[in-house]
Design a protein that fits this description.
CATH class: Mainly Alpha
Shape: rod-shaped
Number of strands: 2
CATH topology: Cd81 Antigen, Extracellular Domain, Chain: A
Strand order of the largest sheet: 1-2
Order of helices and strands: HHEEHHHHHHH
CATH superfamily: Tetraspanin
Pfam family, one: Tetraspanin
Distance between the termini: 35 Å
Membrane topology: Multi-pass membrane protein
Largest sheet: 2 strands, antiparallel
Family: Belongs to the tetraspanin (TM4SF) family.
Number of domains: 1
Disulfide bonds: 135-169, 136-154
Strand content: under 5%
Subcellular location: Basolateral cell membrane; Membrane
């Protein structure tokens, strides 16, 4: 059940409309940074393997097989080690993910407000960011200095609003990925706690079966 829940959460994050709209963008020959999906794929793999290993442990307990329970314990140790490694990787890269996406947005924005936008899809990329995140420009100050591009690139609602009332896209990008990574972190902690209990209980059961077989 835990594996199924983790798999479901991971698939939901993988196909979330906001992240897919942004991370599938392509600016000329440059693809949007998709480092975020590395953590998602790890969660998907862990959830799928957990479901399989769960059946293995359940069958081993029913059959009272020390071999199956030992294999179950070994698989849990490997999964736990992988999850710890993924957690460390995520903690180290949590700020870098949003930073890379903001740099990609800034590059597209600079091209969209210059002549370069006529030779690539920079305007389409920027519009997708603005519409998906409901934001306008990399910062509020830009909107005051250059009001003309707002009519071409920003959502229609932003044109009728005061610039200070409309969030800048850097802030929205930070909020989007911090929220998603926070959810991934909670899922990882829950899985880790469940795995610890599973390892303890599987060893207790395995030792109990071995001791009972003596008599």
């Amino acid at each position: 059940l835990a594996g199924g829940i983790i798999l479901g959460v991971a698939l939901w994050l993988r196909h979330d409309s906001q992240t897919t709209n942004i991370l599938y963008l392509q600016l000329g020959d440059k693809q949007a940074p998709n480092t975020f999906y590395v953590g998602i794929y790890i969660l998907i793999a862990v959830g799928a393997v957990m479901m399989f290993v769960g059946f293995l442990g359940c069958y081993g307990a029913i059959q009272e097989s020390q071999c199956l329970l030992g294999t179950f314990f070994t698989c849990l140790v490997i999964l736990f080690a992988c999850e710890v490694a993924a957690g460390i990787w995520g903690f180290v890269n949590k700020d870098q993910i949003a930073k890379d996406v903001k740099q990609f947005y800034d590059q597209a924005f600079q091209q969209a407000i210059t002549v370069e936008s006529e030779t690539n899809n920079a305007k389409a990329v920027v519009k997708t960011f603005h519409e998906t995140l409901d934001c306008c420009g990399p910062s509020s100050s830009v909107g005051v200095i250059s009001p003309l591009w707002r009519e071409k690139l920003c959502p229609k609602d932003s044109i009728q609003k005061n610039v200070s009332e409309f969030s800048n896209c850097h802030k929205k990008i930070d909020e989007l990925f911090s929220g998603k990574l926070y959810l991934i972190g909670i899922a990882a902690i829950v899985v880790a706690v469940i795995m610890i209990f599973e390892m303890i209980l599987s060893m207790v059961l395995c030792c109990g079966i071995r001791n009972s077989s003596v008599y």
